[in-house]
Write a structure and sequence with these properties.
The complex is a heterodimer of chains A (497) and B (469). Chain A is of the alpha/beta class and 497 residues long. Chain A has helices at 2-12, 18-21, 25-29, 46-54, 69-72, 98-102, 106-121, 132-136, 141-152, 168-182, 213-218, 233-237, 250-264, 276-292, 298-319, 322-325, 340-348, 363-373, 385-393, 407-412, 430-445, 449-454, 463-470; strands at residues 61-64, 92-93, 126-129, 156-159, 196-202, 222-228, 244-247, 268-270, 329-333, 352-357, 379-380, 399-402, 417-419, 482-483. Chain A has three domains: 2-26 and 42-182, Nitrogenase molybdenum iron protein domain (Rossmann fold, 3-Layer(aba) Sandwich); 196-318, Nitrogenase MoFe cofactor biosynthesis protein NifE, C-terminal (Rossmann fold); 322-451, Nitrogenase MoFe cofactor biosynthesis protein NifE, C-terminal (Rossmann fold), CATH 3.40.50. Helices cover 44% and strands 11% of the residues of chain A. In chain A, strand 10 (352-357), helix 18 and strand 11 (379-380) form a beta-alpha-beta unit. In chain A, helix 14 packs antiparallel against helix 15 (298-319) and helix 17 packs parallel to helix 18 (363-373). The longest helix of chain A is centred in the middle third of the chain and has 22 residues, at 298-319. The radius of gyration of chain A is 27 Å and the shape is globular. Chain B starts with a strand and ends in a 6-residue tail after the last helix. Chain B is globular and about 80 Å long. Chain B is built from 19 helices and 16 strands. Chain B has three domains: 20-158, 3-Layer(aba) Sandwich (Rossmann fold), CATH 3.40.50.1980; 162-170 and 187-225 and 236-305, Rossmann fold; 311-449, Nitrogenase molybdenum iron protein domain (Rossmann fold). By secondary structure, chain B is of the alpha/beta class. In chain B, strands 1-14-13-12-15-16 form a six-stranded parallel beta sheet, with helices on both faces. Chain B has a four-stranded parallel beta sheet with strand order 4-3-5-6, sandwiched between helices. The chains are: A alpha/beta (497), B alpha/beta (469). The interface between A and B is large, with 91 and 97 residues. Strand 14 (482-483) of chain A pairs antiparallel with strand 11 of chain B, so a sheet runs across the interface.
Chain lengths: 497, 469
């Protein structure tokens, strides 16, 4: 546990994090997320966060060392996509029983589980996740993984982020640490080149990175590793030979980006593929970093040309939505897909952003949102469900963009809603993704069901009927009750039916 | 005699189980004005919540004591108390159902004493809120056990006992008489304890049938009021609808208790022990004969013959059996489900002439497993299921079976929990005459949709004579 405690302190003390830099030494130690309030908490645990970050590595077997719930209640629940191996969607857990825990058999069980997976699936690597119970009873997963790796001849990577140590975000960072400690740099690529980049913190939800990758292909830029979206173990293990990196979801993996810069001199920038301007800026900065690391400067011109072409097409396509969406009010309530650029694009086509959460935004992002929005009070950290419901049922927004957790608050308030988090079914990244997002907003707002569900029943204007209907639980007995004439039956006959 | 094979693998592959505290939470969600509270780390609740929301497509009130590192090492009593007080202050629930998790139980604190302390020290603040504890570690049992434990806990901890119950009943009758023009409810009360596998539609239908005999059903838990997908006109931090706490208090005034599913025997037994209410357990309410027995039983306790509507439903089922059996005869079925649901479905398919070629279940403790009409039952996961089901014509399990079905190229009939990739699972009827009829149609339609056009190759299979040598 000592090393884990040190890791956590290390994660809290992230020098690349702008928010962190503004704090003094003592508040920095406490980390960013406030401890959850018992009875009023939402969100996942550190294990959840670690699994979210690593599970999209598609050819790895992910083994959760825990009693059932950690994996059994949560597997196959994210919409990341793979272009090849499907092993990541197979769920593995030691599913510890009371006996395993009480008799101290859990480490042995873990060892055998690793053997079982190796024999049945022969994956390039196995990731082993510690959880609350196995950490509490003192299982030494580091030692078990080390022994198993030697014995079975494949990388067995311990992921030490038990749920109780903190929030989902901390788990994201601990996952990054595990990759740094055990995976990245363990394989030397034989094909490293001057146009190799890493994309960090991109999850390939609904395959959306495939809307961006063709753009990079056209520029001759090779994605050495996209961590974790659609990644292969080997790509991640050899990602230290990339020339530059883009950090997409900065709050999740900033430690990974910074340490890769320190150890392997891979410069990085924080960017986003959500929104048109953001996508252009990301492409431009990738090209710039590559040039700085020795690539031919002609790539800059090619990039500008591609951007001009793509932007023109995208804006033209978006323009067609203006008549339908002008003046519509949108509320963005998510930690995921949102950036100043998304806000900017929506406003550009005439929509009004009545609020946006900035919970996971960087300081820079917040500044830019502030500039675009002009009204600072439209930014919020989070809204209580009750307030959100009130806001929506008073029809203060025409649509809410959020994640599944608040989906039914919007729907019960009879407000159009669009999923922009991990379970969504549509790709929103890049130029075409932005157009798709606007198309989905249009479809959601203009669906004919809204006028139907908002209309009260015709008889609700009749007070007499309304009163009768509102009386609680009138399960009236059916009228046709006739006396029994058949012979007596013995109730005992039915006891074992 | 069915052979029950215990789990021998070290790693579960594609779990079939959902966790025990989740089962308990589902039961508490069937109580009006309730909030289930997981005693464990934040993630335990978050995972369960997401799964429930994906299944029910509803906001689901579910909270956590959010045990952190300190609580894990030093004990979680403080967190438990803080969570209860916070819930009371924020949502004023009528019932808080505490479900312990593996994390809390591995520490094995005396939760019962802790809660008694909290209730005593905070009596004033907590007035009007019942607090019920179910011990449901994840390392034991699954949904079925968790559900049964929560119902047992409610009966044990808040149902009035023996004499007490009868006294309070008189009191309520007198109160009611004072309202002019209203007569006391003279209908005989029947306590119904449905298993977790009954859907919202099942429970509504069950209620109507019991009422049609002039009986007054009190159903615990009653998810038909709380998870039936309605649109309330205001924000509700707790469940809305379900069994009232008052009805749980008064459960002992019933003339009869009926448990549906073997796992409801324990709570039914306890109710009898505490209040003297006799009970009967119906292990399945699916299939003509099972429903016939149930209807006869209702006639018996009510003294009323089955109303014409029921005769009509029975006739429809007879017809469905006649029309449907062609599609089932000789079909090979693979089922992975919790014990009582496995029994319910296996007997259903056998009853139409199909064959159960593989049966996988979550835990081995249930007595019902001995009665499942299959040669053997594997205690295991969907990995085992995939190995055993490759020759099946139909696989029957919850939505997590979609990968199995895809890989094997066999159609999947989705049942139980969770069903997250189809709509309306809670409005699917699976019990009594109508539910059996609907199940026949649903499965027969799957068979028909996957029927292959005849070809010489397919007919070759028939020409390979078994006795040819």
């Amino acid at each position: 546990m000592y090393s884990l405690a040190a890791k956590i302190q290390d994660a809290f003390d992230e020098p690349a994090c702008e928010i962190n830099r503004r704090k003094d030494a003592s508040t920095r130690k406490k980390g960013c997320s406030k401890p959850p309030t018992p009875g009023a908490a939402a969100g996942g645990c550190a294990f959840d966060g670690a699994k979210v970050v690593l599970q999209p590595i598609t050819d790895v077997a992910h083994l959760v060392h825990a009693p059932l719930a950690c994996e059994g209640n949560s597997w196959d629940n994210r919409g990341t996509a793979s272009s090849g191996p499907m092993l990541w969607r197979t769920s593995f857990t030691t599913d510890l029983t009371e006996l395993d825990i009480m008799m101290g058999q859990s480490e042995r069980r873990l060892f055998h589980a690793i053997r079982q997976i190796k024999e049945a699936y022969a994956p390039p690597a196995i990731f082993v996740y510690a959880t609350c119970v196995t950490a509490l009873i003192g299982d030494d997963i580091l030692a078990v993984c080390k022994r198993a790796a030697e014995k079975f001849g494949l990388p067995v990577v311990p992921i030490n982020a038990p749920g109780f140590v903190g929030s989902k975000n901390l788990g994201n960072k601990l996952a990054g640490e595990a990759l740094l400690d055990h995976v990245i740099g363990t394989v030397e690529p034989d094909d490293a080149g001057p146009y190799d980049i890493n994309i960090l913190g991109e999850f390939n939800l609904s395959g959306e990175f495939w809307l961006v990758k063709p753009l990079l292909d056209r520029l001759g830029i090779r994605v050495r590793a996209c961590i974790p979206g659609d990644a292969r173990y080997r790509d991640v293990a050899s990602s230290h030979r990339a020339r530059a990196a883009m950090l997409v979801c900065s709050t999740a993996l900033i430690n990974l980006a910074r340490k890769m810069e320190e150890r392997w001199q891979i410069p990085f920038f924080e960017g986003s593929f959500y929104g048109i301007t953001a996508t252009s800026e990301a492409l431009r900065r990738i090209a710039e970093l590559l040039v700085k690391k020795g690539a031919d400067t002609e790539i800059l011109d090619r990039t500008d040309k591609l951007i001009a072409e793509e932007e023109a097409i995208a804006w033209k396509r978006l323009e067609s939505y203006r008549p339908r969406l002008k003046g519509k009010r949108v509320l963005i309530n998510s930690g995921g897909v949102k950036s100043w650029s998304l806000v900017h694009a929506l406003m550009e086509i005439g929509m009004e952003v009545v609020g946006t959460s900035v919970k996971k935004s960087t300081v820079e992002d917040k500044e830019r949102i502030k500039q675009v929005l002009k009204e600072e009070h439209h930014m919020f950290e989070s809204i209580a469900p009750r307030e959100l419901y009130a806001m929506l049922s008073e029809q203060k927004a025409d649509i809410m963009l959020s994640g599944g957790r608040t989906q039914f608050i919007a729907l019960k308030a009879k407000t159009p809603w669009l999923d922009i988090n991990q379970e969504r079914h549509h790709p929103y990244a890049g130029y075409d993704g932005m157009v798709e997002l606007v198309r989905q907003i249009d479809l959601a707002i203009h669906n004919p069901v809204w006028s139907d569900v908002r209309e009260p029943a015709p008889w609700e204007d009749d007070p007499a009927v309304a009163e009768q209907l509102s009386s609680p639980h009138t399960h009236s007995a059916t009228a046709s009750v006739a006396p029994l004439k058949t012979s007596r039956l013995d109730a005992g006959d039915f006891a074992e039916c | 005699m069915v052979h029950i094979h215990p789990q021998t693998k070290s790693a579960a592959v594609n779990p079939l189980k959902s966790s025990q505290p989740l089962g308990a939470a589902l039961a508490f969600l069937g109580v009006d004005g309730a909030i289930p509270l997981f005693h464990g780390s934040q993630g335990c609740t978050s995972f369960a919540l997401v799964l429930c929301v994906r299944h029910f497509k509803e906001t689901v009130p579910l909270q956590t004591t959010a045990m952190d590192e300190l609580a894990t090492v030093m004990g979680g009593e403080g967190h438990l108390e803080e969570a209860i007080l916070n819930l009371k202050k924020r949502a004023n629930p009528k019932l808080i159902g505490i479900c312990t998790t593996a994390l809390a139980e591995t520490r094995s604190e005396d939760f019962e004493r802790q809660i008694a302390n909290i209730k005593m020290m905070r009596a004033e603040e907590l007035a009007g809120t019942e607090i019920v504890l179910a011990n449901t570690p994840d390392f034991d049992g699954a949904l079925e056990e968790g559900w049964a434990k929560a119902v047992t806990a409610m009966i044990q901890q808040i149902t009035r006992r023996g004499q007490q119950a009868r006294h309070s009943r008189k009191a309520t009758i007198i109160e009611r008489i004072t309202k002019p023009g209203e007569h006391p409810d003279k209908r005989k009360k029947v306590a119904i304890l449905p298993g977790w596998h009954l859907t919202v539609a099942d429970i509504e239908h069950l209620r109507e049938m019991v009422e049609s005999f002039g009986l007054k059903p009190v159903i615990l838990p009653d998810v038909s009021g709380s998870l039936d997908g309605t649109v309330p006109d205001r924000w509700m931090p707790t469940t809305y609808g379900g069994t009232s706490v008052e009805d749980i208090h008064e459960l002992g005034t019933a003339v009869q208790c009926i448990g549906v599913g073997e796992h409801m025997r324990r709570p039914a037994e306890l109710l009898q022990k505490l209040t003297g209410v006799p009970y009967a357990v119906f292990q399945s309410l699916t299939g003509l004969k099972n429903v016939d027995r149930f209807v006869s039983f209702l006639s018996e306790i009510s003294g009323v013959v089955a109303p014409p509507k029921i005769h009509r439903c029975r006739a429809q089922l007879q017809d469905a059996l006649l029309d449907g059996h062609f599609h089932f005869a000789g079909k090979k079925i693979a089922i992975a489900a919790e014990p009582d649901q496995l029994y319910q479905l296996a007997t259903f398919f056998i009853g139409l002439g199909a064959e159960i070629i593989s049966a996988v279940t979550t835990t081995g403790a249930s007595k019902i497993l001995e009665k499942v009409p299959a040669e053997s039952i594997q205690i295991g996961d969907l990995g085992d299921f995939e190995d055993l089901a490759s020759d099946a014509d139909l696989v029957v399990t919850h939505s997590h079976g979609r990968q199995v079905a895809e890989r094997l190229g066999i159609p999947l009939l989705r049942v139980g929990f969770p069903v997250f990739d189809r709509l309306g699972s809670q409005h699917k009827l699976t019990v009594l005459y109508q539910g059996t009829r609907d199940l026949i149609f649903e499965a027969a339609n799957v068979f028909q949709a996957h029927q292959r056009m005849p070809s010489p190759e397919i007919l070759d299979g028939l020409r390979k004579r078994r006795n040819a040598g």
